[in-house]
Structures are given as C-alpha cells and as structure tokens.
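User: Show me an example of a complex going from sequences to structure tokens.

Assistant: Sure. Here are the input components:
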Amino acid sequence: MTGGDGPGRRERAASGLVVGAFGVSALGGAGFATVYATGGQTQLEGLALAVAFAGLAVGLAVWSRHLLPNGGYVEEHEPFDSPPADLRLAAEALAGPESPVRRRGLLAMLAVALGTLGGAALFPLRSLLPFDRERPVHALRTTPWAAGVRLVRADGVPVRPTDVPDGTVLTVFPEGHRGRGDVPAFAVRLDPARFVVPPPGGNVAGVVVYSLLCTHAGCPVALYLKETGRVLCPCHQSNFDLLAGARPIAGPAARPLPGLPISLDADGFLTAIGDFTAPPGPGFWSLK
Amino acid sequence: MITRWLLRRLGRSLDDRLRTAPVLRRAFAKVFPDHWSFMLGELALYSFVVLVLTGIFLTLFFEPSTADTVYSGSYAPLDGSRTSAAYASTVRLSFDVRAGLLMRQTHHWAALLFVAAIVLHLLRIFFTGAFRKPREINWLIGVTMLALALFNGFTGYSVPDDLLSGTGLRILYSVTQSIPVLGEWLVFVAAGGEFPTEEMVPRMFVSHVLLVPAALAALIAAHLGILVRQKHSQFPGPGRTENNVVGSLFWPSYTMRTLALFAWVLAVTFALGGLAQINPVWIYGPFDPAQATSPAQPDWYVAWGDGALRLFPAVEFRIFGHLVASPFLPGVVFGGLTFAGLYLWPFLDRRHRRGQLSHQLLDPPREHPARLGFGVAVLTLFAVLLAAAADDIVAKIFRIPVLDVLSILRVLALALPIPAGVLAYLVARVLQASGGRGVGDLTRQDVRSVRRAVRARVGAGVGAVTAGSGTPPPQDWAAPADADRIELWRDRAGRWRWRCRGAGVLLTANQLYLSRDEAERAARTAYGDLPLREVEPPGGAVGVPAAMVERAGRVAGRTGGYLTLAAVAYWRSRRSRRR
C-alpha cells in the first residue's frame, strides 16, 4: 500500500482477486451441496469443500495482506509485578484480623475432614472393576485351559494331531472359551529329532502347543518360519525358538512362550492335561 | 450501510447491558507480532475446532458398544459377518452414511495435524526460550494439552474396535500392567477386567468425546486467557524492547489473517479427508485377540513409544520375587521421563541465566547453543525411535532381515543424538560469531575462528557446555539504539496518539488516547526515557482505504447473492422435474 507506482491499481487488483476467490469459494460450497444432493461421492465432496475453504482462505489472506495495514504498530507491555502498595493491600485483605487464614486449629481440622472425604471419594473408583469379576492376580495367572479341555479351531471343531498342517501353525482355543483374551494357543508340527530343549508341554506325534500371546506386550505371535522353527511377533519383532522350548532369541521379549501340556483323549482328539506351564502373555508384578 | 447500522445497533445494545466498549476497544487494538512461527499454536487451535465439528457428526452415528451384531450394509466383503456394534457402526458410517466417510477421514487427518501443530508449537517455544518467566504456567498447560492430545488420539483410533487398533490397545494394556505394585489393579480397574473387556470401548468413548475434550477446551481457554493477559513475546529487532510488542493490530489485519489460516486448515483437512484414505478399518477387519495385522504401525504421535518398545533390549528383573516386566522401562519409565523433562524444563533452564527476570524478547535459537544442542540431541533420539516403529516396513523395502534393521537402529539411537547435538551446538556458535548471517552464508573462516575460540576456552578450564553463557548477552535490556525519539500529537478529533521514530523504525501506537497523560504513560512504558516531543499531526495517517474494502465487500456480497439465487432456481427446477 505504501510507495510503489499506482497504489490504486494494485488495490483494485487485490480486491478483484478477493472477489474472485470468494466467488470460487461460493462455487465450491455450491459444488459440495450439489455432490451431496445428487448421491454423494467422498472424493468430490472433499474436493468441493477444499475448494470452498481454499477460496475463502485465499480471499481473506489477500484481503489482509494487500488491503489492510500490516505491521507498524507498537503496544506498551507493562511489567507484571504489582506496585508494592497493591501487594500490601491484597495481603491485608487476605489475612486480615478476622480472616479464616489465622484460625490454625480450625484449618487443621478442616484439612483432616477434606482429606478423609477426598480419600473416601476415591473408593467408588473400585466399582470400575465389577465385584463379581476375578481379581487381577488370579485372573492373570490362570486361564480356562484345564485337564480334559479339548483343543478346538476358531470355528469350534476339535483338532486331531493329523489336522495340524505341516509348515504353518494352527490357532487353537479351549472348547467353549473362544472369546477370552488369555486363551489363544497355537499347535505346530515339529520334528522331535530337532528339539534342542524338549517342549514344556510335551508333544503328541510331533505336535506341540504354545500360548499364542507374546510374553512382551501380548500380541499374537502369528508369523511362523518353518526352516528355523521360529515364531515372530508382528508388533515388536520378538523371536521365539520353538525347537528350544520357545525361548526368546531376539527382540524385546524376555520370557519363553508358555507351553500347553497335551495328550490325546479317547476319541483321538488333542486335549489339554492342565493349564499353560506359566501365565500367558505379558509380565506382571505378581508373576511367579 | 445496513451492515454498519446493524453493527452499531448491536454494539449499543450490548454496551447498555455489559459495558463492552472499553474492553472491545482494547481487544481490537491488541498487537500480534508478525512472524510465521506465532501461527503454529493457532494451527493447533483450528485443528481442534475441526476435530470438534467433525467429531460431533461422527458421535451421531457411532455405536460405542462391543455387543455382538451382524453387519449388514453396502460393504459386501463384510456383509452378514458377526462383529462388535462399534466396528459395524464404523463400517456403516463409512459406507452407508452420506458424507460419513469424508467426516471420518477428515477427523482422523485433523487429529494427525492437531498433534503435529502442538509439537511444532512446542519446539518453537522451546528453541526460542518463550517458556521463560513469566510464561512457565502456559508451558505447563501446553505440555498437559500435548499429553491429553496423545491420549485422545489413541482412544479415538481405538474405539472402532478394529484389528489394528485392538493390537495397539493390547500393547497399552500390557505396558500399564507392567507397572510395579500398582499395574495389575490399575489396568483391571481402568479396563474392567482382563483384556479384552466389553467395557473398554464405551469407557474410551466417554473419555474421547467428553472428558478429554472438555479438559482440552478448559485448558485452551486458560492458555489463551493467560496469553492475552501476558501479551505476546517477540523476536528482538529494531524498536522492540522488553516493554513493548511490535506487530499488527488484532482488528482488522490479524483477524483476517487468522481466519484465513482457519480456512486453510479446513481446506487441507477436507482435501485430505476426501482424497487420501486413512485408517480403512474395513480392510483390517474386526478385533480378535488371536489375530494381528502385519505390518502394524500406530499413528505417528505414539510411534515414538512403540519404537522405544521395539528397540529396548529384553530386560526383565525381579525385586523381592516380584517381576518388573520388559515393557516397563521403555514404556512407562521412558514415557514418564519424557513428560517429566518437558514439565520441568522451564525450571531447569533458568538456573544459570538471569533466572529471576521476566523475558518478553525471545532468544534466536543461536543465542543459546547449549539449549539448541540439547534439543537437537533429544529430537534426534525421537527421530530414530519414530523410524524404529517402522522397522518392519524398512526391512521390507530394503530387503534386510528385520533383526538387522533393529540392530542398526539400536546403534543409531545410541550413537546419533550426541554428535547431532554437538554439531548443532557448534553451528550455533559459528553463527553467533558470524554476526547475524544465515547457515548458507557461512565461510570456512567463520568455522575456524570459533573452533579456535572454543579450544582456547576449553584450554582455560571452562567447560564447553557452559561456554554459551560466556558470550555477550543478546540485546535484551538495551533500549533500541536506532529508535531515537517519541512523537506525540493530537489528531483533529482531539484524541492523542504517539509513535516511535528512528532510523529505519516507524511504529505507531496501537491505541487512541483520550488524554495526553495516558498517551505519554504508554509511550514511556514502551520506550523508557527516549526523548519525547509533541508534533503536528502527521499527514497520510495509517489506516485502511475504506472505500476499496467496501467495494470489494459489495461485489462479493452481490456475487454471493446471485449464486444463491442460481442455486435456489436449480433446486426448484429439479423438484418440479421430479413431480
């Protein structure tokens, strides 16, 4: 605005630009309404709204930049410390002769009352964990796996050792407890001759079963590498060596995957003969 | 004409009831410094507004429940499958609610932008020393808002109950569970039992749409209230002192500028929301504790935590027979240290540098080589952690075994930050010595001279780390040398004004004063004892070419009117055609 030749022309150009930009914005808005009204299409809706708002933005920016003063102003910035007289008056008003601040004894008892009340008010937080649910330590240590519980696939079909494929792992659940978080396990067929450490849950014709939950942060260790006999967690890349008792060999996991002790029931299906050899999933304070 | 008449009526009736004129007069005249970096906080503010607007739309369609339902809708691959109500309603609102997908994706993009803007704003505040007295309170509020934003981002992308976010939730659950003594109870009370529980989604939803946004809104109000009370800080420059603010007026210049920024935020988020797919939960599938997606990456703002979990070695130990599980150190301790460091920084940074004084002039980053170096070192570490959260993708792209990537990143996390910090420190020293030139203008000579100076100082027994405090202080307290007089005058309407005039400086007071005393007091506050002289009213007063603006407004208004008429006509013709 200041200096230059023909400031009037420049201003006219700027206001022309502003008008144009607001016009484009209106078109964008109308476009959005039209797209919506004629059936809606996500990309076009987004584009129309973007055009509408971009037009608005350009118009406002040009307006502020070329038709309004920029910079050149100064405002005083008074220091923040009050004049001593003000401070003194405030202090007197707060702690005058009748002020509650002076009644030490009453204040102390008030603090006791409020403190107790505050503590008591925290108790209902406990309701967030319903009282009919398991307590944390017990819930974390145990799972529904127990002697005589059959291994079933995700669709509920019981598993025979021959159902366990060669080269990939089969996710299994305790019969009747498909949805629980701590139960998923996987069955895998290994060559018993390659065992460095025997599997903690034993094997039935080369089939061994381990907890599916990574002992680091609880993700399912779903990636199986057959050649090395390892499983890999997709979340933080912990590696477990299934030939050595599912011992962690890389990544942030520090404990082996718990094994599931298995045998065959009378009908030839795989069945658990107890809970996991250790609590499954991530560690916790009371883990023995 | 009508607009002005309406405004005057409205203003008068408000003033009769609330006496708004004195407040408004001052508010309109508030001065904002002209520097782009002061807009970063506003970027965050406007992203928050977009989040609230799109979020309200989403709450009307989202069902925060893990109850079993059968999804039926136009997304064929999932039609008829059993999922949770939360997941089904998310897919439904993406495919069967008109403009639903646009709102959902815009919401997600705005969340990414929100946190990014907060982080950039924080970095600006950090590197320029804007957190110093008197602004420590606003720093604390800002760090709290960052924490809340991270948490709300996490709950936001977890509520759809899809496979990817469920995995993230599983990890957060495990990290909380690893806290010694309290962890098991803490996480059971918070989630309502052992992972996964049916209470998690509704609880996260209440936190996501009510508790945290309400807290954020309250904190934003406090943040802005304190900002207005304390006024802006500013970079040093001609005419700028510790006792003034130089820039543009809130009304009209800054109002237009900030509304333009708001419109830009809306434009960019809606463009991304419409054109760039984000978080396609229908591809991930519903959550199932026995499944995981691979690769699995969190949103960027929690990726540093995930990266730390990936990089940290497998360390578990026992205290009196109790287990401290492996996520505890990288998850809880590292995250806790990060935020403790952020909260404490204003109090750590002031010890050896004029700590008790108030600061209105910012430090250009080079003036504080030690702070700059420390900041760059920490940022480097976080950059490595961010990369670590994508180690599986890096491995896939470069066809390197993921465990090798992990080893490389571990080395980098340990080896990079300190050299990066030292380099930043040295560059700052060189820039300082070079006398106000940019990084691109440095010569070998500059570098050599600083190296010699540092060596001499180290030789003299002064640690290199404290060397920054030995340099001459920036011109904080000096009155501007080139602003050499105050001019005071009475305009034709009888009101008093003043301005500061010097070599290359012409700064007009932001307000009109009713008395000479008032005007002089303001000028004295801003510029101390500069010579003050009463002058004739200067010609060519600073102001808006009102006629031009009005013409633009009139034309814009008319254009809008015609467009509305056209739209109505189109709509009516369609309706009549349908009949």
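The lines above are the inputs; the final block is the predicted structure for all two components together. Chain B has 20 helices and ten strands.
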